[in-house]
Each structure stands twice: as structure tokens, then as C-alpha cells.
């Protein structure tokens, strides 16, 4: 059985982290300390283009959102600086984050 989603810490400045995805509903959450001008966002691949999932999935401080996408490729992008955070992208089944 495939394992979808990912939890990781302290993404490097100006980096992207791939997340295996099953094309469903999930939770995107970031908790910790953000340096000034640091933005962490969730993107999905539509065709050959990476697109932001939406405004709620672009964080400049600790927070979380629920998202739905049919895409099977996701990435978490850190715009600048290295934060001291934990990032979680996990599927949601029957109103429960796994």
C-alpha cells in the first residue's frame, strides 16, 4: 500500500519538497517560527505547470488549511530564508487527518 503525504522540518531557503499524493482531500499545516519575508506554500501540478493550491495554502505564519485536488503531484515551496517549522501534508479520510 502506498503512503501518501509527508511530514518534515525546516525546509531550506528557496527550496521545494515533493509530496506523493493520491488526488484527494488533505490537510496542509505549518507550525513554528517564520523569519521575516518567509512564505511557505502548497502547489499542485496541473499538466506541466506548478500552480498554487490557493491563498489559504500560502502561509507566512503558523496555520493550516484543508484542500482538495485531483492532482497526483504536490510540492511545498519555501520562498526564502530557512524557518524553524514542521510542515505536514496529510490525506483526510472520513473527517480525520491520518
Quick recap:
The chain is mainly beta and 98 residues long. It has strands at residues 6-9, 15-20, 25-33, 40-46, 49-52, 58-59, 63-68, 73-78, 84-93, 96-97.
Key words describing this protein structure:
single chain, 98 residues, mainly beta, 5-stranded antiparallel beta sheet, 0% helix, 57% strand, globular
Describe the structure.
- This protein has 98 residues and is mainly beta.
- The strands form 2 sheets. Strands 1, 3, 7, 9 and 10 form a 5-stranded antiparallel sheet that branches.
- Strand 9 and strand 10 form a beta hairpin.
- The radius of gyration is 13 Å and the shape is globular.
- The two termini are 15 Å apart.
Strand percentage lies at over 45%
Based on CA atoms alone, the radius of gyration comes out at: 13 Å
* Assembly level: single chain
The 3D shape can be described as globular
How many helices? The count is 0
- The number of distinct β-strands equals 10
Largest sheet, described in full?
Answer: 5 strands, antiparallel
Could you report the average pLDDT, rounded to the nearest whole number? Answer: 91
Any low-confidence stretches, pLDDT <50, length ≥5? Answer: none
* End-to-end CA span: 15 Å
Order of helices and strands: EEEEEEEEEE
Structural class: mainly beta
Helix content: under 10%
